[in-house]
Write a structure and sequence with these properties.
two-stranded antiparallel ribbon; 11 strands; 7-stranded mixed sheet; about 325 residues; 8 helices; alpha/beta
């Protein structure tokens, strides 16, 4: 996953003075790589206990592999012989960012994730769309929906890279303003709280192997291309001095079409699905477009999704 993780860092323009988080970090490889190669604070959230325990083992082994036998490590260990493994990791090796791996769910860790600058979510082949968090209330939506609400809570300038589109976010600012202009309405910074880019991740040649490195370790084919979706929170004009995620209705018949609506509900912090003035659905309908690969970490099925705009969407 070395080249693929480096591509995530490049696409998100991750900087050393920022904080990275992997939502569902698995065995922790991307978290460790970002800390050791980018030098940034690197965090991970993992629900499954077995994967989390493996990540802790890998972190300890990598720390010893990088720092073991150096004078700095010997001095640190001798001066704090009673340190636990977790305490030693608070003093990362030179040029390595602090590492924070946690076992938990999205509900408990929502605020911590939203406070980060760059988030990576491996929801490839809609595996987060088909699973529900046990702590989410009935009707609260899928894990993808919950991830979308976390993104809306992030501060302007933050980025989230996913491997499946977050349909619950609705239209980007560019898309929403295009729809408003088509309806004879004025474009606005309050039209939406994010911009979106689509990138193709494909196998790349690396120095240590003769054939191209696969995009991800769970892909069975070296020809697999994966679409990655980069969401960037943008500053707006009105609510919270421009820091509160908001949107405008694109229905020209709506009497509140120029009044920004807070994207997150005050109760529960979930995304608003409709315009609060006219109940027009905020997000476009999904009708179907093929996923680029039949291979997935979850087992290898192909899903069909599309983002065709619904004329009645806000």
């Amino acid at each position: 996953l070395f080249a693929a993780t480096a591509r995530v860092a490049a696409l998100t323009k991750l900087r050393r003075d920022e904080t990275y988080v992997d939502v569902g970090h698995g065995v922790g490889n991307t978290v460790l790589q970002m800390a050791y190669t980018m030098g940034c604070v690197s965090k991970g959230i993992e629900l499954v206990e077995e994967r989390f325990l493996v990540s802790e083992t890998l972190r300890e082994a990598l720390w010893h592999a990088v720092c073991g036998g150096t004078q700095e490590t010997e001095d640190a260990v001798s001066s704090a012989a009673a340190d636990t493994a977790a305490e030693r990791h608070k003093r990362p090796p030179p040029l390595c960012g602090a590492i924070d791996l946690r076992q938990g769910d999205l509900v408990a860790c929502k605020a911590d994730i939203a406070a980060c600058d760059v988030a990576f979510v491996n929801n490839y082949n809609e595996i987060f769309g088909a699973r529900a968090d046990a702590k989410l209330e009935a009707g609260a939506g899928t894990l993808d929906h919950h991830v979308a609400s976390i993104f809306a809570a992030m501060r302007p300038g933050s980025r989230m890279l996913t491997l499946w589109p977050l349909h619950a976010l609705g239209m980007s600012r560019t898309e929403a303003n295009a729809k408003r202009r088509a309806a004879g309405l004025a474009a606005s910074d309050d039209a939406s709280f994010f911009e979106k880019e689509t990138h193709i991740l494909k196998p790349e040649q690396v120095a240590w192997r003769a054939d191209p490195e696969p995009v991800a370790t769970w892909c069975k084919s070296r020809d697999v291309h994966i679409e990655a979706y980069l969401y960037t929170r943008v500053r707006q004009a009105t609510l919270g001095a421009g820091t509160t995620a908001a949107f405008l209705c694109s229905n020209r018949k709506c009497h509140g079409r120029d009044e920004p609506t807070q994207a997150l509900s005050e109760k529960g912090g979930t995304l608003q699905d409709v315009c609060v003035f006219c109940n027009t659905p905020r997000r476009p309908a999904r009708r179907g477009a093929a996923c680029r690969s039949a291979s997935s970490r979850a087992g290898g099925s192909t899903s069909v999704v599309d983002d065709d705009d619904d004329d009645d969407a806000a």
